[in-house]
Structures are given as structure tokens and as C-alpha cells.
Amino acid sequence: NLVYTLPHTTESIAEFLTPILSRVDPSAGGTQVVVVTRDAETALTISETILRLAGPAGIEVVPITNAARAGRIFKTRPVLAVAGSPRELGALVRASLLKVDGVRTVALAWVDDILAEGPETVRELEALLGELTDAARIIVARKATPELESFAERYARRARRVGAPETEAPQVPADYELPIIQHVTVAGSARPGALRK
């Protein structure tokens, strides 16, 4: 389990998702990676970013914009990786189209955005995570917050942290003056005297 602190950019998508997709085994078949996003637009962005990076020969991340439409895709060809909202992914699990026993990794792409969607989305996310119990958890957030830490402790116990958390710059009083620093070059034997001066 990992917790990434990353900005919401296409470079960040590549940073957390490329290592996950490199471990997908096409010969095993079935869905092995599930990326949970805030909405269909984010799922499409993730899919397009991975396609641009890996090209047509790479692992495709199928964006789930509508569960009924995605169900037709699942019936026609193997789907190794998907990205979608908790509601659409949950609908695929309930319809037994997304088989949870083959899923190796669940990535929550910007969990702070998902949690901000409201209690209904949080319930759907928790239900989905309850189904995907054997999968490794990758949590991606913009910044480390107490809410994120609480969520990570519940759903990705003892997860390793990756990325520098965003910190606020220290506040400097308006009347603060920078100290003047002087440098003196002296011989090694004259250092004690120079320091006293």
C-alpha cells in the first residue's frame, strides 16, 4: 500500500500509474487494475494520458463513463485496467462484469476530490473497497490532511508515503529584518581571534 502526495497533473498520472501497469500480466486475463476517480472526465484523462505514454501496444486503461456501455466492452474483449467513478465501478461489480478476485491493485486517483463529492459518493467508494479486499491500495491526494491520514489508516494500513507533502511557507513578520552575515578569510591559526572579533 502506498500514499502519494502529488498535484493533479498528467505527469502525476504517469508517476503513480506507470509502475502499476508495468506489473499487469496480459496472459492472466481479467481486470487487474482499478483506478477510482472523481468523475468520468478524470477517468478519460487518465485513459488518454496512459495511451499517449505507452502507445497502442501498452496496457489500455478503459474509461468507465457509463456502466451499461462498459458492460458491452467487458463482454466482447478482455479488459486489463479500468478507470471510473465509484458509482459506475460499483455497478459493474454488482452486475458481475468486473470480477473482483482478479484485481491486484486499486488506485484512488485524488482521493481528496472523491471524498469532496459528498456522503453518497463516499458510501459508494467504501462499498467498492469492501468488495476489493485482496487488492493492494494506492492512494493519491493533493496534500496530506488529517482526513487523508484517517482514510489511509482505515483503507491502506501502514501505507508507505511517496512524494513531498505540500507545506505552507512560514509566515515572516512585516517588521522582520534579515540579519547581516559577514565573511572573513583568515589563516587556520588565526580563526579563534577572528571569531572573537
Structure description:
There is one protein chain. By secondary structure, the protein is an alpha/beta fold. The chain has 8 helices and 7 strands. It has helices spanning 10-22, 40-54, 67-76, 86-94, 111-115, 119-131, 146-155, 191-196; strands at residues 2-5, 33-36, 61-64, 81-84, 105-108, 136-141, 160-162. Strand 3, helix 3 and strand 4 form a beta-alpha-beta unit. The longest helix has 15 residues, at 40-54. It is elongated. The model is unreliable at 165-169 (pLDDT under 50).
Supply the key terms:
7 strands; 41% helix; 7-stranded parallel β-sheet; 197 residues; elongated; alpha/beta
- The overall pLDDT, averaged over residues, is 87
Q: Assign an overall shape.
A: elongated
Largest sheet: 7 strands, parallel
Helix content: 40-55%
- What is the overall number of helices? 8
The helix-strand sequence is: EHEHEHEHEHHEHEH
Query: Order of strands side by side in the largest beta sheet?
Result: 3-4-2-5-6-1-7
Terminus-to-terminus distance: 56 Å
Looking at the chains present, what oligomeric state does this protein adopt? Answer: single chain
Rounded to the nearest angstrom, the radius of gyration is 24 Å
Task: Tell me the β content.
Answer: 5-15%
Low-confidence stretches: 165-169
Q: What class, by secondary structure content?
A: alpha/beta
Please tally the β strands and state the result: 7
